[in-house]
């Protein structure tokens, strides 16, 4: 039996131990729990150790009323159970659905992405002049952290080989893709990059989306040959 199988098999009994503690008005010791649940004290002790490790149960020594050793008792940790099921996918659908009702949903999504992109990207010192190569590296590092599996390609493009929101992107591409583009634009603006993300091409390839990069006007002007000053006649 693997560790996962063992955890699954132990789950009902462990939950029973936790529920017994929650149903009690007072903290309980191992013997009391074993009697209430009709199981061996060593089994109770095993599950209590796991629950304490998970932060679901608090263990303390109870001051004795007379002579004798202090008794070890257990009580459920106060607060909401953090081991329950999460519904972040549903939350994302609710928020995207609401955002999609905006008169210009794409622009609103891009603006939201811009603000977060500037927050998420690795910062540079104010005096540091960043080049195109370093800007691309910082951009791909941020997108890697977010789970997009970016891969720099030829012709100033970046392939995004994984979408961490794939199911949502298939349903809300008109909102979610502009948000992703906004993330990249906000990041490049924040680090004063000489390049800009001009376009995000969703599902441009069977296994990737394509990000198109181009020099900013400032960078393009710096690369263009200087015009000669006309001679005065």
What does this structure look like?
Helix 5 (105-120) runs parallel beside helix 8. With 233 residues, this protein is an alpha+beta fold. It has nine helices and six strands; from the N terminus they run H-H-H-E-E-H-H-H-E-E-H-H-E-E-H. Helix content is 49%, strand content 17%. Mean pLDDT is 87; it is low at 1-8 and 223-233. It has two domains: 3-76, Winged helix-like DNA-binding domain superfamily/Winged helix DNA-binding domain (Arc Repressor Mutant, subunit A), CATH 1.10.10.10; 88-223, 2-Layer Sandwich (Muramoyl-pentapeptide Carboxypeptidase, domain 2). It has a four-stranded antiparallel sheet. A two-stranded antiparallel sheet has the order 1-2.
Helices, strands, pairings?
Blueprint: H1 3-23, H2 30-37, H3 41-53, E1 57-62, E2 71-76, H4 88-99, H5 105-120, H6 132-145, E3 150-153, E4 157-160, H7 166-171, H8 173-190, E5 195-205, E6 208-215, H9 217-223
Antiparallel strand pairs: 1-2, 3-4, 4-6, 5-6
Domain HTH arsR-type: 12-101
Protein name: ArsR family transcriptional regulator
Region (Disordered): 62-83
| Cα gyration radius (Å) | 29 Å
CATH domain class name of the largest domain = Alpha Beta
The largest sheet is:
4 strands, antiparallel
Query: What share of the residues lie within helices?
Result: 40-55%
Distance between the termini: 95 Å
Structural class, please? alpha+beta
Mean pLDDT: 87
The arrangement of helices and strands along the chain is: HHHEEHHHEEHHEEH
Tell me the strand order in the biggest sheet: 3-4-6-5
Question: What oligomeric assembly is this protein in?
Answer: single chain
Question: Would you identify the CATH architecture of the largest domain?
Answer: 2-Layer Sandwich
Shape: elongated
